[in-house]
Amino acid sequence: MTVVVFGSINLDLVVEVPRLPVKGETVIGKRFFSAAGGKAANQAAAIAKLGIPVRLIGQIGQDNFGQTLIESLQAVGVNTDGITVNPHTYSGVASIVVDDTGANTIACAAGANNLVREKEIEQFKIILPQAKIVLLELGIPIATVLMAARAAKAHDCFLILDPAPVRSDLPEELYSLVDVITPNEVEASQLVGFTVDGVTTARQAASFIHQMGVKNVIITLGEQGAFCSSEEDSFWMKPIPVSVVDTVAAGDAFNGALAVALASGKSLKEAVQWGTVGGALAVTKNGAQSSLPSKDSFHQLLNQQALLA
Ligand code: RIB
Q1: Residue 246 a catalytic site member
Q2: Which of 1, 26, 108, 269 would you label with 116, given CA atoms 20 to 30 Å apart?
Q3: Is the alpha carbon torsion for 94, 139, 236, 204 positive or negative?
Q4: What 3-state DSSP class applies to 60?
């Protein structure tokens, strides 16, 4: 097992609308669909689809949503042995609204994700000796994230943290355990306390996050590409122009492809390029796991980018 993803699993209930409603407003939707989601589940699915063995650790409720989620993860090759089923709660649900530009708002009812604790940590510790790379996100209790980060570092794993859903009160210790942090602009803004809206402010934010103890900072900037800062290098990765349909899970596709590249021995710069390709392809399709690229389409776009460089 090369990669382990630890975190949230949701069923996404998606309404497509012409524009996002403002506070207190009801907007009539155009279409509804449900899709497998949850940040950690999406990242694990992205990794499996790109052909790397991956195990997901998390929790679902004993309900139809949970069963659907497990089946769709298994269908793309994710090892789900580390997912516990809790008969006393419901599976995580995300209520998502997507507008005509592909922008979205998401509200989650965490359900079982909120109860991810010692039992899942035990599962995680069993698999860690075989893991090279660990991905964490914040859709589960922060105390559990911290326990998982400590365990991952005790086994010398390379630790990627997607700080989403973002919170500004991340424990200082967590920053010091993380090898790569991957906020988007909104998340980076909340972490540093000033607006991050392009390469200049991303550079300032990265420097701030380095001071918190993280060695490598990658800030994804949507249609402006991504900015990466490490101890050796800092660079801007230009965006790949695509027709945006739905931005849900673009960050998860980025993180998944980043992890696959690093697990395959690529440099950080190549890994950011792989992440950018994953994110670009994910926004061209609807839904979370349903939008994740196949290995063929991924390598086709990656090769095209290499020819353009
Ligand atoms: O990153 C996208 C995911 O965020 C969705 O699939 C939804 O479940 C929320 O957790």
Answers
A1: no
A2: 1
A3: positive
A4: strand
196 is written with which tokens? 């991050």
Arithmetic mean of pLDDT over the chain? 96
**CA 240 to centroid of ligand 1, rounded, Å:** 22
What's the half-sphere exposure (Cβ side, CA atoms, 13 Å) at 67?
A: 4
Decide: residue 160, CB within 10 A, 0-12 exposed, 13-18 middle, 19+ buried.
Answer: buried
Positive/negative CA dihedral, 133, 189, 290, 58: positive
Q: Is 139 in the pocket of ligand 1 (CB under 6 A)?
A: yes
Does 10 contact ligand 1 (Cβ within 6 A)? yes
Domains, the chain, with CATH or none? 2-7+39-91+117-308 (3.40.1190.20)
Stretch 41-67: mean pLDDT: 98
Three-class DSSP labels, 228-245: EECCCCEEEECCCCCCCC
Taking 80 as the threshold, does the pLDDT of residue 309 lie above it?
no
- Provide the token pair at 166: 């973002």
Atom 7, ligand 1: residue with shortest CA distance = 38
Q: Which pair of tokens denotes residue 199?
A: 């390469």
pLDDT at 307: 78
Residue type, 292: L
What is the pLDDT, as a whole number, of residue 48?
Answer: 98
